[in-house]
2-hydroxyacid dehydrogenase (Luteipulveratus halotolerans), 340 residues
Amino acid sequence: MLTITLADFYVGVVSLTLPAVAVLCPTADDRPAHLEPLQGRVDLRFTDAAGLGAALDGARGLFLWDFFSQAVEDVWDRAGDLEWIHVAAAGVDKLLFPRLRESDVVVTNARGVFDRPIAEFVLASVLAHAKLLYESEALRRTRTWDERAPLRIEGARALVIGTGGIGRATGRLLSAVGMKVSGAGRRARTDDPDLGEVYESAGLASYVGDFDYVVNAAPLTPATRGLIDATVLKAMKPSAYLVNVGRGQSVVEDDLISALRDGTIAGAALDVFETEPLPESSPLWTMPQVAVSAHMSGNVVGWTDDLAHQFVDQAQRWLDGRPLDNVVDKQLGFVSGASS
């Protein structure tokens, strides 16, 4: 005989009356914390990729805690009631697909959470190169005493590709240590408050040779895919240093490897790659002028807490009928406005 307790009945009623939000997690045990403020307001359906289709049945919201997952497209036919997707990442290139772009579903991202951490990572990369820290570590391992003259970063010219929140935070921080900063974006302009003169990124090869440091902080879009190729690399100064914290696919990796091998540029700090994890066979692992990190430039202690709190704030806005923050232009592939 089937017995239904009052608690079971209450849970069933709640799930039928509250708006459902599916939460896609990397694994069953990797759930976001700090969602208590949403209790009693939404029916949170935690799932991994295998159960996403069932979780989306009747769901009005979707939280991509597994922010690099591409599982949504596979179960899109079951998302007929979906109104809103929030991605716990700044980049949405892994999510967007034609049917989503064409739909009325609103997409928001984690813009703002990663700005300062990534800017700090860029500054650390610039300083590590200029102050010969990588070389000093190699010398330490062989107990070699070699007094050298590092570079001065004050007055050095830096080009920041990408004029969104991450690019702007990077520009402000590099300016604060005395670097001369310019930007590259979709539209050229002068007197930008954070980046000074902004050049049109489509003409990158025509002006990139004026800069000592080139920082890619751009989202991945059709316009930025393969943006830094052999032509751009050959136009850079032989002493120039590339820092990539945007997306690996914005740099043609084979062209970069060739440029590093033949001394076309001095070196690179790479946090993102065409294929991640970076294959063990990649020559980038063993190049002494290359710093490799595991797509962690935005990670700081407490970063997942920040992402969870941001989602709670967005969900409360959605439930209250208030405007959402960080609404992505699905045709452009990023939050439009200051990032143009």
The first helix runs from residue 6 to 17. DSSP finds ten helices and 13 strands in the chain. The first strand starts at residue 20 and ends at 24.
